[in-house]
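User: For my dataset I need records formatted as: sequence, then structure tokens, nothing else. Please produce one.
Assistant:
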Amino acid sequence: MIRAFTMEDMPTVLKIWLTASIDAHHFIAAKFWQEQLNDMRLFYIPAAENYLYQHGTQVLGFYSLYENKLAALFVKPEMQGFDPPR
């Protein structure tokens, strides 16, 4: 199911963003991404229209729209390539 983001989702979204960013950018120190968490929490996530992909009770990823354009798409690294049963 795809559903709208709520502020209660912030810790989950930040965890997905951080782990996926570190995983995808192995050539950039993890510390850099960790230092961006506060800006993500305070500025970037709140400025966007965010939607989560949830399978059962687990959030597997999210996407963000900014000015009606796709600004971000993140999937938990361990779920990338996973095809959940329908």
